[in-house]
Design a protein that fits this description.
With 285 residues, the protein is an all-alpha fold. Helix content is 75%, strand content 1%. It has 2 domains: 35 residues, no CATH class; 222 residues, Orthogonal Bundle (MetI-like fold).
């Protein structure tokens, strides 16, 4: 009893490491980055105030606007494909079939490979296929680059989302499924009326992850297409990277930082809207 009272008394001490890590690793860098987005700078120690000029440039930059449209289209297509396919595989692997654990492991393994490595692997594979078909190389055609990134992203993430969906499906009370069977519901009705409503927490998580990963795509984009040709297959993160590091001069650092802040706000807003929309559909078990 005394130990419990002591723990209650000293609970702020146990929170201190987490709070300190949050402040040092996120809050302070974010505030400093927000300040630098209004400055010209080479390093953070020689920043000079530039007002809203950085944001004016970012919002008028055609390459940045194109990268926004590219990332938006990529995120929508990849999110739909990844979640539909992952959910379908999860449905199949939650049935009584042999080799289920082997299939789960095989589907999950691509998620363990780094994005840069995956990008170069798929660049070689897809360029070989296009060469055999006598088509332009992947890096020389924006359409091939877009669908190459879709294939890569799906191959990497479907297994991870599948695991989340499997956990959600296995958490559905068997009483619900038995009641649906007794009421004469067929497989399709059981799926839409029982399984999907009860697996909405998993859908919320998977949609959040695929949406944010789609907009934050960088490693794979850099390795697979590099934004070629002429930045036409360049996503938001790669555009910010190229603005910040590929050009010299204090103004470009400020432009890149302003783009990064706009990008951060964009992802936060989209994520909050998605979370609010899907959580409202969740049912209490």
């Amino acid at each position: 009893m005394n130990l419990e009272k002591a723990l209650r008394k000293w609970w702020p001490v146990f929170l201190l490491p987490t709070v300190a890590a949050f402040i040092i690793g996120f809050a302070y860098p974010f505030v400093q980055g927000l300040y630098l987005s209004f400055c010209k700078f080479i390093t953070i120690n020689n920043a000079s105030w530039n007002g809203i000029a950085n944001y004016a440039y970012a919002l008028q930059d055609k390459e940045f606007l194109h990268s926004f449209l590219f990332s938006t289209a990529f995120t929508i297509v990849s999110t739909l494909i990844i979640n539909v396919v992952a959910f379908a595989i999860a449905l199949a692997l939650t049935r009584s079939i042999k080799g289920t654990n082997v299939f789960r492991t095989v589907y999950f393994m691509p998620n363990l490979i780094g994005g840069i490595v995956l990008g170069y692997i798929w660049q070689i594979l897809l360029n070989c296929v296009l060469t055999l078909l006598e088509k332009p190389l992947l890096s020389l055609n924006a359409t091939y680059g877009f669908w190459g990134l879709i294939i890569l992203m799906c191959w990497q993430q479907i297994g991870y989302m599948m695991i989340i969906y499997i956990a959600g499906l296995q958490s559905i009370p068997t009483d619900y499924l038995e009641a649906a069977h007794i009421d004469g519901a067929n497989s399709w009705q059981t799926l839409w009326k029982v399984k999907i409503p009860n697996v909405m927490p998993s859908i919320t998580i998977c949609l959040f992850l695929t949406l944010t990963n789609g907009f934050k795509l960088f490693d794979q984009n850099l390795a697979l297409t590099g934004g070629e040709p002429a930045h036409s297959s360049e996503g938001l993160a790669l555009n910010i990277y190229n603005t910040f590091y590929a050009r010299s001069g204090p103004q470009w650092k400020g432009y890149g930082q302003a783009k990064a802040v706009v990008f951060c706000i964009l992802v936060i807003v989209i994520s909050l809207v998605q979370l609010r929309a899907t959580r409202s559909k969740e049912v209490q078990q």
